[in-house]
Fold this protein.
Amino acid sequence: MKPILKSALLLAATLFANVAAHAGELTLYSHEGFGGREVTLREVTPDFNALGFNDRASSMVVRSGRWEVCVDSEFRGACTIFEPGEYPDLNRFNNNISSAREVGRPWHGRDREERGPRGMLELFSQTGLNGNSTRILRDTHDFVQIGFNDRAYSIQVDNGTWQLCSDADYRGSCRLFGPGRYDDVGRELAGRVSSARLVDARSEQRPEPRPERGAVELFAGPDFSGEPLPLRRDAHDLVDFNFNDRAGSIVVNEGEWEFCMHADFGGRCVVYGPGRYPRLGGMDNQISSVRRVR
């Protein structure tokens, strides 16, 4: 064998060995404690039916890489990420895994199509994207269902704009997060996130537009502090904006606006013309609907 050819073959073998050494490897077992039938994965597996192993895994060993496992095929439903280590009991994922993939490795099937328009959000149990994590791809109205209720302290938004709320069913304190890394979700949500939903599937983060003339701004705190809510048109129920009974101060840029204590402009109402209102008196944290009257 010529020296040049021999060197090329040795180099190729070395490169192949390095790639293999860094590829992830996950072994699943049908019984707890690493017993029963076992299946070893080294590549993206979007549907365990192809392995004859759907909803059968009860324990696992992550030999290398970080693996995301999901309860439905095509990486849908509740998902979580497992770091290298031994897992003799999968708890809520026992007999409930239908797809798995190594995090960071490309998947060019349907998942690629899903991620673009649907968004992706990963939550972490510690600040700085540390601790245990779980990933969601769809609206999740109650984090109890995915075993991550009141646990999130930091997040990574890979795609889309997500609304995170402190209570189930998208209630309580809520905040929007666009694509990016958030080492701390903020005091109002730290360790309190109970629901999340995708509100904008577009990848790029767009700044919140400022109110045009003729609009009104509501603020969550007195003296124009706290989260603002700009309105350009009538709001029959501020529940739709996650701002019900939250207004503590108001700015009216133009026109006259009626603020009412109940939805659909019911209950006690007051009218404010152009100006700044740092205190709302008896209407403080009582406003549920708003409309322009002139």
